[in-house]
Amino acid sequence: MCADKSDSKESETAADRVNASSRLEGTEAIVTGLFRVVSKFPQLGLNDNLIALGIDSQGILELVARLSRTFDRQIPVSAVYEYATARTMTAWLLETQDDRSESSTSPGPGAP
Predict the structure, then answer these.
(1) Which of 71-105 are b and which e, b meaning 16 or more Cβ less than 10 Å from the residue's Cβ?
(2) What does DSSP assign to residue 72?
(3) Which of 2, 16, 50, 102 has the most crowded CB, counting CB atoms within 10 A?
(4) Domain boundaries, the chain
(5) Alpha-carbon span 93 to 27, nearest angstrom
(6) What is the pLDDT of residue 9?
(7) What is the C-alpha to C-alpha distance for residues 37 and 39, in angstroms, rounded to an integer?
(8) Domain 2-94: which topology?
(9) What are the tens digits of pLDDT across the range 9-41?
């Protein structure tokens, strides 16, 4: 019986890794696509910095609007400056998505 539990834990861990990898790859593809459309650089890579490439304020606002719609959440303009590559933006989105879902299930201040 112990072997079954151990095998089950290993399978869950492997499945979790596959799910996390798929989620990362899917989110990276979406974010990279949005970065490419807004920047008008179709060959933009995961590590290309939008600010260094000279994106203007209108482009930043468009990117924020598209990210907010796509991920159904409010994206601050400052996030584009802080996470100016598709890779760093993806990491931030996934990291803060977990924080967001925890806070949405937690009672607010003053709740019993």
Answers:
(1) beeebeeebbeebbbbbbbbbebbeeeeeeeeeee
(2) T
(3) 50
(4) 2-94
(5) 9
(6) 57
(7) 6
(8) 1.10.1200
(9) 555 687 766 677 777 889 999 999 999 999 999
Structure tokens at 30: 């979406």
Summarised one tens digit per residue, pLDDT across range 46-86 is 999 999 999 999 999 999 999 999 999 999 999 999 999 99
d(CA 40, CA 61): 14
Nearest to 53, CA basis, from 78, 77, 79, 35: 35
Tokens of 77: 């303009």
Question: What's the CA gap between 5 and 84, in Å, rounded?
Answer: 44
